[in-house]
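Incident log, entry 3
Record: PaaI family thioesterase (169 residues)
Problem: checksum mismatch between cached and fresh output.
Input:
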Amino acid sequence: MTRPLPDLAAALAAAAASVEHPGPLIPEGALGPDFPAARRADVELVLSLPFQRLMGFELVRITRDGAESRLRLDARHATPAGTVHGGVLYGLLDPAAYLALLPHLPEGANASTHDIFVSVMRPAPIGADLRFHARVIRSGRRVAFLDAEARLGDTVYAAARITKTVFGA
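Fresh output:
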């Protein structure tokens, strides 16, 4: 017996709307002085996407040197072992890297991930305040290379090498 598929877009929108965000999407002072004002709407879009909202992904700071974001790990991120599900890490390292890339993109340009390699080095405990640090290794007219890490303090829990295609410039 097959079940009818739910309206996924409506389900995601309802789920995202049900998640209370603790404050503004872009906290006061989070965009560094070198951050292009024209890219503010892009940051808001990334942070308002249903997956990021459902996970509780929050911006800390973006400058040309990189981006920092955070995730307070709770039951929605848990495996039966009481650690964060790897898919949460994979899924949030990518937008963390995209935020770091935004100040480097030419006006009118955008980027899409075409390769991501993630290594999870150790299980992150539920209840922790996980920080994502991302930086641009190299950004050209057509391709960008980025590194992103998920850390607790100075300890790296997961690391990603991400390649993005730059288009629309």
